[in-house]
Amino acid sequence: MSNPVEKAFEKSLFASRWLMAPMYLGLVVSLVMLVFMFGRDLVWYLPKLMEMQSEDVILVALTLIDLTLAANLVLIVMFSGYENFVSRLDVEGAERPGWMGKVDFGGLKMKLIASIVAISGISLLKRFMAIGETRVLNPDELFWMVVIHLTFVLSGVLMALMDWLQAKSYTSRK
């Protein structure tokens, strides 16, 4: 027979996962903010299209891609986090993305780092494309941007290696 105090404690501990729900609602707000920024940038640049050089259009496209990747990242964290840590999403009849319900914490971690590397790479590419324009770029700033990007890349590779080693260790024990 189990201890009633222990049982009550475990029940309240398990129910505490719902404290994460407001955070996921906050992510919905951040998604709305990203959509607003995407629309604002699109509306801002469209009238200027005929005066823009192809490099400028590429920079605008990279900016929009950057915002889209960030929005995808928010969605992945929002859905996967909710399903992994709070409750399964019951959306019968809705078009459910194929990855929903299948992304565990390790998969979420890899999607997160891959998105961060992509966003960092786009930001770095935008800075490199701005070289030679009227704004003089600080060499120290570029150096640190490259170092930070490579740190993200290395972190991603090391996380993938750790996941691979863990999976290999798990399968060798079976």
TrEMBL record:
Coiled coil: none
GO (cellular component) term, any one: plasma membrane
Pfam families named among the record's database cross-references: UPF0114
Residue intervals passing through the bilayer: 21-38, 58-79, 112-130, 142-165
Subcellular location: Cell membrane
Family matches, as InterPro entries: UPF0114 (IPR005134), UPF0114_bac (IPR020761)
Source taxon at top rank: Bacteria
Key words, A-Z: Cell membrane, Membrane, Transmembrane, Transmembrane helix
Family, as annotated: Belongs to the UPF0114 family.
UniProt name for this protein: UPF0114 protein XINFAN_01550
